[in-house]
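pinging the channel bc i need a second pair of eyes. not urgent but kinda urgent?? the chain im working w is below, pasted from the shared doc
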Amino acid sequence: MKLFALLCVLSAPLFASAALAASTGTTDGALSVKNTDGRVIANATRGGVIGHLDKGWLTIKDPNPNDGTGPIVNGADSAQPVGEHAIRYSGTNIRFRMIGGAFVISVNGSGIDMSVIGRGLVTLDGTTTTTGTYAVNGGASQPVPSYKLTFPLDATATAGG
């Protein structure tokens, strides 16, 4: 009996790793945005996001509050509901994350640093500025374009969209 219990304890990390691999899948994409001014929108059917905003606002819509962590936001000066399952946070030095499930996050302001993993659509809008860089699926960093660029977030996406 003790041997069985020991085997169960030792094999638990293997099952957890397998479950995590099954939930993320090989079709998930990755986006990294660094020191960007402007607007970044991630509309994910599933995934996770973690980020920081020097100054501005972000709106997080969580269509199903039961399918992930829900929004975790620190440092916002204010938080206001802006529709069903959506909250707008504003201020300086805002840190945010949301892991698991579907979400739409729109980050507007200066000093945007964020990483997104999952599947869906991404929009980079540098029409008001051309600062910052982005990289897709571990590719080379590219300057944020001075126009609105929308592309799929998946394993086949490239830096040019």
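so The chain has one helix and eight strands. and The longest strand covers residues 29-61. — does that match what u expected or am i reading it wrong
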